Amino acid sequence: MLFDKLKREKRHTYEVPKRDPGLDQPLSPTLEDTLARLAQLTGQTADLQVNRLEVEGYKLAFVMFEGLVNYQTLILGTASDLHRLLAGQKIPSCLVPDRLCQELFMAGDKKKLRSFEELIQFIASGFAVLLIDGSPEGVALGVQGFSFRSIGEPASENNLRGSREGFAEPIRINMSMIRRRMKTPSLRMKLLKVGEKSRTDVCLIYRSDYADPEMVRRVEQRLREVRLDNLMDSGYLRPFLESGPFSLFSGTGVTERPDTLCAKVSEGRIAILVDGSPYAILLPCLFSENFQSMDDYAERPYYAVFIRLIKYLAFFLTILLPGCYVAAVNFHPELIPDQLLFRIAEAEQDMAFPLMFQALLIHFIYELMREAGLRLPRPVGHAVSIIGALVIGDAAVTAGLISTPMVMVVALTTISSFVIPSLYEPVTLLRLLFILLGGTLGLYGVVLGLAFVGVNLCSVTVLGVPATSPETPLSLYSLRDTLIRVGWRQLGQEQFIISRTAGADQNGEPADQNGEGQP
Amino acid sequence: MTKNHIGALPASALIFCCRIFYLLTYSPRGPEYGGSASMTAFLAAGLVSIGLCAVFWGLLRRCGASGLPELFHRQGRVFAAFCELAVLLVLTGSALSTVMNASGFLTSAVYPGAGAQITAAAAMLVCAYGAYSGIEAVSRMALPVAAVFVAGLAVAAAGIAREIQPAYFTFAGAEAVPQVLELFFQALYHNTEVLLFLLLTDKVRGAGTAVYARGVLGSMTFYQLSILLVTVTLGPFAYVRSYPIYSMLAAAELSVVTRLDIINLLVWILVAFVRGAAYLYCMVGCVRRLAPGLRRSHAAAGVGLGMTALAWYLCGSLDRGLELWELWSGAAPFLLSAAIILLSVLAALAAGKKVKSCENG
Amino acid sequence: MRKWLILMAAGALSVLLTGCMGAVPIDQRMLVQAVGIDWQEGQYQVTLQIFSPARKEGESAGQEVCSAAGEDLAECMRGIRLETGQELFLGNCRLVILSEPAASERTAEVVDYLLSDHELRPGTPLYLTEGEAAELLESPELPAEQLSEMMRSAAEAGLCPDSTLLTVVRSLESLGSTAALGRIEAGEAGGVQASGAVLLGPVGTAELTPEQWRGVSYFSGDSRQLEYTLDYKGGKLYTNIAPVQSRLTGGENPGELAFYLSVECTIQEYSGGTLNWDSAEVASVRAVAEQAVRRELEQGFAALRTAGADVICALETMEKFQPDFCRGRTPEAIFGSLVLRPEVQVNITALGAGAQASA
After folding, report:
1. Mutant choice from B106, B107, B117, B165 vs C, greatest count of C C-beta within 10 A
2. What's the pTM value of the predicted model, to 2 decimals?
3. Which of C161, C139, C73, C147 is nearest to C112 (CA)?
4. Which terminal residue of chain A, N or C, has fewer Cβ atoms less than 10 Å from its own Cβ?
């Protein structure tokens, strides 16, 4: 009965994305009809600009959305060229678009269009479309002039050394940043449109000499099968690119850095840029890549190895420390050194709540503060950190809500979680899971949880490549850039190709989870 | 024929983990059983099981099959159903004995106040999830579990080194032959991994006796090392303990860590998980072959919940658990496995001869 | 949707499972630091020294003592548990002390009981006291930590055995059924000190002085470095002596044992002035060290034979050390009328300031 109710609510409140009706219609040869139809389709929207003009006896109209076009280029360049091109011997109106496409210099990008779908697509992308009375075709002129955030430092991937450039929102800017870094003819960029209503530009980037063609084909197919109304961010696409049962860990990665993207594409991966999002998607992504950064490759190998090992340790600390602490104190105090146990016993004797509850409470408070700090404006955000320090560090301990050892555990846990920001989401949930397991079933529960998480991670396969490769299935040679990092003299001699890693399905077909077909 | 999804190394690691399971509750049970008698018996049992696997695999190849299920289904639905049910029975017993053995250890040695039903049910549910994730995921998991076991043993050896007394190890003389034989047969009967392997061969890349042999030899090597370590550190004390390896680790010390029995807990639960998940996965496969229309998720859920309920029932009373344990410690599972394999091979060979004689005649 | 409902149910169930695995909050556990066991007139008395956390600000943590009597150890522990209302936690127990009557009559039972507790470390030290264990633990000047450190240092210096639950139970289960326990006795200036060992055999006990115990250590193949203070030319020579190699074989005559022992000697300091370290001096020092080691060896062997314990007392020592020699021979044949002929070789390796000399 509950499920029937849910189904009724779903039918009533939600709608399956559909294409806009009437978009497939071709443009009318009559200018006024075209303009009238356009006004009807857009519902007389206030930002649609139609500038009618007559040049050398031809009736023309520029159609654009306000604020997206560079008027200077349009007026000084394109408009003045029109007189030059249309003067002299009169040609039929239907041939004017061809002539303009061939001889108009001031606009960088010129395309002919025939349908209303293309018309709206172009003017929404910042083009100015020239319509000619008597021609069923229009000419889209690339005179974009919309405002966008300039290229700045990536917000989420900080490095000590290396480039300070991060992606911006416009896809073309991002494409140019990649092309500038990889001057090889094998670099391919394929543009697609995703989103029934938003028609967002999505760019598939890969290297034809390293990427597996079957992988590229499957990614393109998955993108074409995406049924979304609006695509506002690259994050919307990630679930469509992954396959297999639910997993806490993703087989796709994101990056805000063009240098990282170029490095990954050079390993045979496929990158996806989404217009309007500064985050690019990379797939397939191995689990061990969460512990790598560009700084590793700029530092000396011994230091890079040390930092990587620290990161692995931090990962296990952040997910296991609170749960193991709760389990050890409640179930296995014999595992704790004597002096430490006495301190803990002293600290816990007057606490109001049991240990598991303390752990959950303090993590909940921390997540609240973290979220508040993210959403608040910057000047107020500083105050949040001060309040947090006071609330947790002093008042909660004094009030007997949590004990001092628990504060230390949480501090170490949260600092460890910042070391691997790409895994922040799964580790946050896993931490809570392990606290619950440790508090209810002791270390037995923690180890069962480890088994669960381990097999969950091992089941992640994207485009036939296991996420746990090259650790398992083991490829000893490939470990030279995972747990450790050998020097560039060795690394630079050969290029790692992701589609050939241990366990990858050579045929490029998905390695099914049970080998017995889809569920 | 299904696609090969498991590499040779993960498959060997899977067999390794399955076989190493019973080591962790190894008990010498008396001076005449300890030391070299156990080592000799287990080594011999391992080599014999490799030989058996080679023989069975050879027979399978002779029939032109890549795995046991294929052989079952050649002789018609009734024969296939009979074989699948028999296999299901063996797998059920093995999976149950795995989880209940783990539960017994935990409630005896580690959590004396815990309920056996809760521990068994929790373990079975997690194993069911492993089975649902697929044998590929479980075999990938087996490799780091094997590495953890080896590392744990090395740490344990470092921690207990100061207690080593080589004099405690004695070479078994001729008088130990009856005990060696008894241990040999017990170790052989514990082994249903041959059946497990033959059920999975069509999913293993480069499947063959070599994959199985690597897993068995690896487990035998660490069996020998572990038994040797227990013998030379605990000496006669090992004979009076139910779980001597656990006692040895409790006595080990390394720097500020004053006991290492957590290694036993960590390793054994992971090993039990891999073994349980592998057996449950094969059970799901059996159920789906018996009911071809059943979705994988439904079959996994059914098997998981059914086994959890069964484990809950059997752990509710020590008598019930002991009955199962005594039955499964005997020759029943091993002989049943061998009978199923031989029966299907013979039927396939007979059918093959009949076809040839029809063609010739 | 179904998936999320299942996950929520699992989460709720996990909360309800709290307590099903026998969790005990730390503030409800009694952290036992030392266990003392007395045996008198057929009754046990168990005394526990437990950690007492600071209850108020400014107070420091200390220890409390509680005890109970009963016919067996389980009854005593149960009594303490009922009295205090807390669960006993033996995982951090630093030492177990037995009184002499308890050690001579009840060691096996005590060790069996203690080792059945999975929290108690098998490496927990086990000692014997000449008086009452309860009296020792009740003394406020002797917290368990201090006591265990003192005994550990004494064991490292070779003054008493490093007896733990594990070593004792191993010895008791072996063929010789003999265990050696470190002994605590009252010191000269008040307090307590380590004082040799007590051998517990199947038919009796034998007390060994620290020198006799060191001799037994050499004989049993212990390779620990021991501190020696030797009288030399009116002064004191402070040295460390460590066994390097030893060998036991049948002697030339029946009933004789030839025992060869090689030790390394490091000289730390000499308090009697300055010595001229030439080869004659080194040879002289070597002779003094050799004499000291030989004397202790002979005393130890004699104690094994004549201290009142059956010859089987020493069999455990012999088995560990020379199993090939012992195999096939009865205890009487090994010890019946043995005469030890020790041969000691001393190799001096260092002379305090770092100068090297080898003999």
Report:
1. B165
2. 0.85
3. C73
4. N
